[in-house]
Amino acid sequence: MTEVIDELLKMKPFSLKYLEKKPHFMKCVTESIKFHYTNCIDYQNYCKKKNFDPNKIKDISDIPFLPIDIFKKITLLSVPKSEIIKIVKSSSTTSNLPSIIHLDKKTVNRQIISLNSIITDFIGKEKLQFIIIDNKKTLETNNDNLSSRNSAIRGMLIFAKKFNCILDENLKLDLEILSELENIKNSKSCIFGFTWLIHQVLSQNENNEKIKEFFSKIPQSFILHIGGWKKLSNLSISKQEFNEKCSNIFNTNPDKIIDVYGMTEQLGIVYPDCKYGNKHVPMFSEILIRNIDSLEIQPDGKSGFIQVISPIPNSYPGTSLITDDIGEILGRDNCPCGRKGTYFIFKKRSEIADPKGCGDTIDI
Amino acid sequence: MGILLTFRNILSNGISYEKDEDNLETSIINLKSKKEWLHSQKIDDLLDYFDALGQYWKNNVDENFGNNLKYVSEFLSRKNLVKELKISLRGNISSLDKFVNLFDDNEFSYHAQPRGISVHWIAGNVDVLGIFSVIQALLTKNLCLIKVPKNYSLFKNLILSLKQVSTKKIDGKDLLNCITLIYIDRSDLKNQEILSKNADIRIAWGGEEAVSTILSLKKNFFTEDIIYGPKYSYAILDSEFLKDNLKDSAQKLALDVSMFDQYACNSPHTIFIENNDPNFSIVKKFAKELSNSMESVNRLMLPKSQTSEKKLMEILSLRAEYDFKGEVFASKNMDWTVVYSEDEGLANPCFSRVVFVRPIKNAEEVGKFHNRKIQSIGLGIANLEKQEKIIDSITLSGGDRCPSIGNMSKFHSPWDGIFGMDRMVRWISMGNKK
User: Mean pLDDT over residues B339-368, rounded?
Assistant: First the structure.
């Protein structure tokens, strides 16, 4: 039986205006929420505590959200355990625990369709030669700490006709591997990696002429980087500086450097930057911005916590999640890049520091 | 060329500076020159002065600093300070001025001399608490070199206001000369070490990381260390007590939790209710009542300070977690959270007005979670004999003070198991027999 979400996934990701998309999206989200409400008793109880009735959804803002951290603490399933085919763990940068996400076949399929649809809108349908800024062992290992990188890279390989990982085991640029890549010089390529790791490699090789020479022969690659800026926050590097460094070493136009926002807790949905630096919300999701103190919905142009809503998760109730990222909706349907729907940017966090003092015990 | 290290001179010689300088030693030499003057002051005159200062703060500053300062003003009353000094100085406060007879000992007389320079590392969260150690140091005639936290304006204003008060014998301006305020970046270990090496008493208010750093600094062989923090506090009530005091207890504990936004060592994070009802009905009822009081305290008495996005998300995540495995009573926004659960033991502190209410079958069982990190145990036990038995049992392995609920933020000696002023003096004995 075809579900409404499958129909949604057939649509082009940025083809409908915000208001045109709304009824399609609402229908899918309502179906998704009803499914989780019926099949995950813990989630049902949570909804009841929030006085939420899935039969009375008027707007997506009515749907209670779960903080993305919840998957670090509690296992929530909406399908029998026997249907789980894959378990993905997030990187544990902000706490010592990773999020653990259980995926069934249906969710994985939806993720693939969604990701394919969004990314090809940015880099085109032609498969590219992928240069992965990572070590090949990241793809082989089942080590928990690496699994988020593993799954992110694997997800992207659907866009690759061939790929090469160019870092050694110490995550340093492996010049030997690079020298073996002479044959790719004339291929259309895409450099892909985690933002912090790319930054690390750029910093280590700022004056490395060999690298510059190698990339100077590769025509204008796309650079896709994911994983966010949290690991770089103490270095206070701006996106512009990062792009300049990337452009200089990898010999590409800053327009082709795409920062991709996404999260393990809602895999398959990504929010890439367009050439105007705006992140675009595809058909298969929507975002809301909530005031950080009152948690009320913020009007466009005001910043707050980013809430992501997508009907893609089937095996776990991850339809409506609130993140700890701060963002601001810039507009709808009118980005000069031509993509329709909501677009937004990340905002810097405020500099309020929580007090530390005599009550600050590390453990008890 | 070596790295030029600077510190910010905020107050020296009674003058407010706000100036970056590179020679900390000069400030310390200046401060040392006031040693004789402070030593020559009589304790009675100092008590008069601090009593007047307490009155001044109560009348002038209270509005700006809310209830946190209320306790400081109470602490400064002559009556309270005499009691504090007597407890710390073996019953005779004149020992600070001269040799006195103690406990009918005719063989020796005794004099409490100041140790010299007291260096105070003040924690950012509870700068008002730091005032207590400064007052104790001045009362025992020790000069004060104070490393203030980054956000020091409140602390500075309080100290600067000393010059607004004068009594018959003491001009506040002279007393202010005995205090130097500086700001040093926490990564500037070189200047921190200069502070430490010049300290006769090191008083550290702070968390685990800060205190460890201070303790690792070089010091003189005879320097006395007084460490306040890092500590954890909680409260125990029994259902018998709650029968008649449910609302009152909720109000008092809401104050204890909200004071200092729960970042102080004396702020309760867990409230245990001893209870044998398998439905825990009184515990749940108390949690609900506490939530009402948390709202009132936040609205009417102690509005919550600004909180970082990171902490707000932590609270949100914790609320969701306990929505699944317990019960959450929370403000519509992120101001306060009461979490009811039947989990065992002390809850990990979240801070920022998040308090856990948990049933316990036998209050004495809490003892098994005790270690030296436990500071205050707020009490609401109906039977005094039972209370004493519980406290004696559970404090064997930790726990420093057991105030009644509502008084958990009220500073008194001993604090963290220490009679502070006793540690700030050197006892000199003098033979009386010829």
Answer: 95
Q: Look at residue B406 and tell me if it is in a domain.
A: no
- Chain B nearest-CA distance from A14, in A, is 30
What domains can be seen in chain A, in order of their start residue? 4-346 (3.40.50.12780)
Domain holding B86: CATH number?
3.40.605.10
Both tokens of residue A236?
């206070």
Residue B191 lies in a domain: yes
Which chain A residue's Cα is nearest to B129? A358
Q: State which residues form the domain around B44.
A: 7-230+419-431
Helix (H) or strand (E) holding A191: strand A189-194
> Does some domain include residue B61?
yes
CB B93 within 8 A of CB B43: yes
Q: Mean pLDDT, 10 residues at a time, over chain A (364 residues)? A: 82 96 96 97 96 94 95 95 90 71 95 95 92 87 62 88 90 84 77 91 86 80 84 75 88 90 93 95 97 95 97 97 95 97 88 75 65
Measure in Å the smallest separation between the Cα of B429 and chain A Cα atoms.
Answer: 36
**Do the chains contact at B316 and A322, CB–CB below 8 Å?**
yes
Whether this prediction's pTM lies above 0.80 is answered by yes
Note whether B240 and B281 are same-domain residues.
yes
| Distance of residue A334 Cα from the nearest chain B Cα, in angstroms | 30
Q: Does one domain contain both B22 and B166?
A: yes
Give me the percent of chain A exceeding a pLDDT of 90. Answer: 59
User: A34 CB near a chain B CB, below 8 Å?
Assistant: no
Q: Residue A68's closest chain B neighbor by CA?
A: B317
For the question of an ipTM over 0.95, the answer is: no
* Per-residue model confidence as pLDDT tens digits over A46-65: 999 999 999 999 999 999 99
Q: Cα–Cα distance between A175 and A178 in angstroms, integer? A: 5
Q: Which residues of B touch A354 (CB under 8 A)?
A: 263, 307-308, 310-311, 351-352
With a CB cutoff of 8 Å and minimum separation 6, the contacts of A169 are A135, A137
3-state secondary structure of B92: coil
CB < 8 Å to B185, chain A: none
Residues making up chain B, counted from first to last: 434
